[in-house]
From TrEMBL:
<feature type="domain" description="ABC transporter">
    <location>
        <begin position="54"/>
        <end position="288"/>
    </location>
</feature>
<protein>
    <submittedName>
        <fullName>ABC transporter ATP-binding protein/permease</fullName>
    </submittedName>
</protein>
<feature type="region of interest" description="Disordered">
    <location>
        <begin position="293"/>
        <end position="306"/>
    </location>
</feature>
<feature type="coiled-coil region">
    <location>
        <begin position="8"/>
        <end position="35"/>
    </location>
</feature>
<comment type="similarity">
    <text>Belongs to the ABC transporter superfamily.</text>
</comment>
Amino acid sequence: MLQLIRPMERLGQLYRALKQSFADLEQLLQLLEETPEVGDRPGAVELPPGRGAIAFEHVGFGYGKGRGTLEEIDFAVPPGAKVALVGPTGAGKSTVARLLFRFYDPQAGRIVVDGRDIRDVTQASLRAAIAVVPQDTVLFNDTIGYNIGFGRPGAGQAEIEAAARAAELHDFIAALPDGYATLVGERGLKLSGGEKQRVAIARAVLKNPRIFILDEATSALDSATEKAVQENLARVCRGTTTLVIAHRLSTVVDADIILVLEGGRIVEQGDHATLLRRGGLYATLWRRQAETPGTGEVDEGVETNE
Ligand code: ATP
C-alpha cells in the first residue's frame, strides 16, 4: 500500500509544483483537452541540434475567441544571447514564454527554435531543450538530492552534485548531517527563499538546456539574497540563450535585447542604452524606478509586494 501512496503523493506534489511554476495548470489541462493540436503532429521530428536560436515571426495569440493577447510579436534571439521581456502587468510577458515552451500554439505567425517551427518538433525534445527557473520553487517531501535530480530523471549522483555546485548549493548540503539524503519540504528541513531558488537553479542546470527561461521573482527574497541569486543565475546562464520575464529593470541592464511590451505588442526593442536614449516607455519606467528606490517594480511604477 505504501508503495502506492508514495507515487500518489508525488503526483500531488508535482501537480502543485507545476501549477505554481507556470501559472494556471487547470486552465492549461483544460486547454490541452480542448485543443488537441497542442500535441505532437504526425511525423513530428526531434528538435535538430543547435545552440538555442529563437525567432518569433509575426506571432499573434489570444487565450479566448476574439481576444487578442499578443499581436505582431516579432523578434530574433541569436544563440547565447539574453533577451528580457519588460512591461506593465498584463502586457503579455509570461504569455511569450508559455508560447516558447509550447503550452499553446499561436494563431498567427510562427515560432522557430534552431531553424524549426516548434509545431513540427516533438514536445518532449522541445521541452528537454528548455529549462524554466520559476518564481516560486515547490519542494517535494523528499531528499534534497531527489529535489535537484528531478531536473533530469535518471541523473546520477555526480551530476546532481555538479549541478548543486554550479548553483552554489553544494557546500550548504555537504554541511548537513545527512548531506544529499536530508529530507526537505513540509516534513523535513525548511529551506530559505534563497536556498529554494538555488534548488531551482540546480534543477535547471542539470537539464543542460539550450534555452533558459527565468521567471523573475516579484518579491520574497531580501535584497542581499536576491543579489546573490541573480549573480549566480547570470553566471550559470552565461553563453546559453536566456529569456527573462523581468519585473525589475535592474536585472535587464545587461540584456542583449530588451523587448518592451505593452498591451500585447512590442512597443520598443533594443539594449538598455539605446532604449534610454529613445526616451520612450522604457525610459519612463526606468526613471520611475530610480525615483522609488528599493521597489524596482516595473509594473506601472506601482509599489507592489505580492
Ligand atoms: P504580469 O507582469 O502581471 O505577470 P504579464 O505581462 O506576464 O503580466 P500575461 O500573464 O502574459 O502578462 O497576461 C497577458 C494577458 O493575458 C492578461 O490580460 C491576462 O489576464 C491574460 N491571460 C493570461 N493567462 C491567461 C489564461 N490562462 N486565460 C485567459 N487569459 C489569460
